[in-house]
């Protein structure tokens, strides 16, 4: 496999940095080809602005979606964005690794998605029949993605009845609204809890759990999100009444 490892932590000597090193080593031992985007080391620019779009930005009011598509189509996106597109085109699978900060990803990683997942590349893609290719379809379809998360909270607090909420609910905007939206098959996340209090023994357990997940990166079943154009949603993109009857919320979007 070709694996792109996206790492968003400011300290390479952190637990996250050590897990990244262990994971990359494990993949290479398996024979995988690995490339990395270490966002802090790259000093990745996290904000969208006219510099991203070259002459496509023009002098009129910036409309990000339309302008980004024009720049993508004409090859005028900034060099750093085009480099990430090349990595994504090369990759069969993507690992997205970050610490959970305020129920979400660090700003630098959010900025990576904001700048890299432009219109025409990750969204705004049309099928031959005129329907929009998203939620299971699109240019990134056929690729796999997995979130590797470190969280300071104890495991019991990140669950169906834990005060912090269930992890797949917390990750729904990323896993469903970004990765699956762009067509990627999303594997269940791996969360390392109590990140600030990991003992040597717990670290060994975490490393082995990571190695286990990476061994099955190509074969494990993804989260069974419903595809937009597979018949489960009506013409208004609302889940049909006979599916998950009497239920609502995030959970109804998995089959």
From TrEMBL:
<dbReference type="GO" id="GO:0005829">
    <property type="term" value="C:cytosol"/>
</dbReference>
<feature type="domain" description="Flavodoxin-like fold">
    <location>
        <begin position="1"/>
        <end position="212"/>
    </location>
</feature>
<dbReference type="GO" id="GO:0003955">
    <property type="term" value="F:NAD(P)H dehydrogenase (quinone) activity"/>
</dbReference>
<keyword id="KW-0560">Oxidoreductase</keyword>
<dbReference type="Pfam" id="PF02525">
    <property type="entry name" value="Flavodoxin_2"/>
</dbReference>
<dbReference type="InterPro" id="IPR051545">
    <property type="entry name" value="NAD(P)H_dehydrogenase_qn"/>
</dbReference>
<comment type="similarity">
    <text>Belongs to the NAD(P)H dehydrogenase (quinone) family.</text>
</comment>
<protein>
    <submittedName>
        <fullName>NADPH:quinone reductase</fullName>
    </submittedName>
</protein>
<dbReference type="InterPro" id="IPR003680">
    <property type="entry name" value="Flavodoxin_fold"/>
</dbReference>
<dbReference type="InterPro" id="IPR029039">
    <property type="entry name" value="Flavoprotein-like_sf"/>
</dbReference>
């Amino acid at each position: 496999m070709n694996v792109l490892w996206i790492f968003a932590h400011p300290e390479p000597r952190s637990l996250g940095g050590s897990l990244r090193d262990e994971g990359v080593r494990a993949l290479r031992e398996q024979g995988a080809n690995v490339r990395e985007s270490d966002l802090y080391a790259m000093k990745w620019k996290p904000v969208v602005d006219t510099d991203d779009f070259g002459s496509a930005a023009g002098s009129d009011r910036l409309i990000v979606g339309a302008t980004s598509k024009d720049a993508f189509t004409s090859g005028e996106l900034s060099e750093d964005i085009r480099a990430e597109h090349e990595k994504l085109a090369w990759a069969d699978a993507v690992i997205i690794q970050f610490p959970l900060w305020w129920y979400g990803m660090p700003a630098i990683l959010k900025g990576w998605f904001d700048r890299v997942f432009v219109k025409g590349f990750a969204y705004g893609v049309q099928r031959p029949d005129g329907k929009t290719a998203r939620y299971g379809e699109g240019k990134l379809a056929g690729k796999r993605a997995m979130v590797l998360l470190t969280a300071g909270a104890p495991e019991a607090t990140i669950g169906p009845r834990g005060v912090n909420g269930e992890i797949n609910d917390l990750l729904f905007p990323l896993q469903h609204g970004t990765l699956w939206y762009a067509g990627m098959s999303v594997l269940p996340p791996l969360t390392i809890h109590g990140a600030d209090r990991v003992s040597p023994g717990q670290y060994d357990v975490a490393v082995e759990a990571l190695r286990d997940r990476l061994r099955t990166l190509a074969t494990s079943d993804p989260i069974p999100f419903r595809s937009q154009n597979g018949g489960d949603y009506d013409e208004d993109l609302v889940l049909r009444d006979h599916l998950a009857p009497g239920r609502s919320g995030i959970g109804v979007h998995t089959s």
